[in-house]
Design brief:
By secondary structure, this protein is mainly beta. The chain has two domains: 130 residues, Immunoglobulin-like, CATH 2.60.40; 93 residues, Immunoglobulin-like (Sandwich), CATH 2.60.40. The chain has two helices and 18 strands. It has an eight-stranded antiparallel sheet. Strands 1, 3, 5, 7, 9 and 10 form a six-stranded mixed sheet that branches. It has a four-stranded antiparallel sheet with strand order 2-4-8-6, with no helix packed on it. Strand 17 and strand 18 form a beta hairpin. The radius of gyration is 21 Å and the shape is globular. Its main location: periplasm. It is found in: Periplasm. Keywords: Chaperone, Fimbrium biogenesis, Immunoglobulin domain, Periplasm, Signal.
Amino acid sequence: MCLSFSHQAFSAVSLDRTRAVFNGTEKNLIVNITNDSTKKPYLAQAWLEDAHGKKLTDYLMVTPPMQRLEPSQKSVIRITSLPAVKSLPQDRESLFYFSVREVPPKSDHPNVLQLALQTKIKLFYRPAAIVAERFSEHDDQLVLHKMSGGYKIVNPSPYYMTVLGITGKPGQAVAKDFKPVMIAPKSSETVRSAVFSEPHVITINDFGGKPVVPYSCHGDICQAKAKQA
């Protein structure tokens, strides 16, 4: 019997990142994987899905889709762009999900429940036309609109932006009931939060860093101080 869970903490097969960006200026993206078990071999099955959970084969190809990892072995998974990738929007990012499922060896003991753990991370396809622009400071593009009980966050950029928290000053702990939110390009989301006179917005960048961006407000509209300078 084999069950699947999306949880990386106890996985034998680990990835070298928690999110991935496929730049349209490149043909391939390499993801490194490791069998962290020192005793057992594992099979690693890899694939891509769209935001609705449908397996993706049109725009990007994953190779190998299945491989065997010996104990402590390191390997790579290659994600390659296909010609149809040009049919994706070229003025903004597209969101996909990259999954790796580990398949343990068959147990020698009867009536043993074996778990096939699965790791899923976000993969952003970033068109060539907007690759260079992302490496300028874009965490300051978000605009906050004060609302009763929180904020409406507007993302005018062509990139997916994730807000991990909003605080009133640097170093302040994020409220436990704040729910991180990912905002699609050129769209908006609302969040429940305390409303601050000078909010500080915590985001996440390409490398997993968590920059804190100070904002100032004029009336109910708040913009990054760096953007106002």
